[in-house]
Structure formats: structure tokens, C-alpha cells
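Tutorial handout. Part one gives the primary structure; part two gives the three-dimensional structure as C-alpha cells.
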Amino acid sequence: MKSSQQQSLYYRLGGEPVLREFVDHLYDFMDSLPEVKTIRAMHAEDLSHTREAVFMFLSGMLGGPPLYVQQYGPPRLRRQHLRFPIGDSERDQWLLCAQKSVDRLVDSGKLSQENADALMDELSAMASHLRNQGDAAAGGCWHGAARHCHGVTG
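Part two.
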């Protein structure tokens, strides 16, 4: 394994198997928690495409294979989410699902608390970036990650 792969969060998390499990748990929680019904209603009834697209996006975002870019081109994440009213409440609902998914992986021993915290830091910054309601409507990139929000490559 290359040293850059050893350093990326994707590989520290456990690569594809753990990231897929994280995404599956996240959307299982979105399907089952009544307190996230607002964001669940923003998604298609069948979440299989969403699960795969989010896995592919997170793979590249976290330093793994850039699967989303290879399949669909630049993600332009903020632009893709502008059609949905996303404020603090919607961000927090998504992060609740993410946190519960992370907690499940930590509890099962598949994810260290240190890597869980690092993942949640990245996801929190990304989710905050997607807000387009209230004080958050101005936008901007998180962590200088222009490649993820504007599709800048290279």
C-alpha cells in the first residue's frame, strides 16, 4: 500500500467494506428514524441508487478511488443539492443518521473512535456546506475542497 493510501481517511477507516457498511447503516437509519422524516422525504422511495452514489462520492472525498468522478464526472455537490431546502435542521437530521452509523461501526469494533471522530468532522463540514437556507445560504467550500463542490479536478 502506498504511503498516501495509508494516510487517507478512506484507508484508515477500512476501505470499501467499512465505507459501504457505513453508508448502508446511514440510509437504514434514515428509513427507520421518525425524527429524520423531513430529509427522508427528500429522497426517492428506493434508496439503492442514493446508497451507491453516496458511497462512490465518499470514496473519493475521503482519499480512496474517485469512483463518482469516474462514473459521473465532477460531483458539484452544492449545485446538486440546491433544489432541496437544507437548513440547520436538515443538516442535523442527516448528521444524526451518520453519527448513529458511525456509532454502530465503533460498537462492533470495525472502526476506532479516533477514525470515527475524523469521519464525523469531515461529514459535519460537508453537511454544513450544503445548507442553503437561513444564514448558511452564502455557500463556500469546506476545507478548501473546491474539487468536491465545484468539480475542480487536478
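Part three, for discussion. The chain has ten helices and no strands. The chain has one domain: 3-149.
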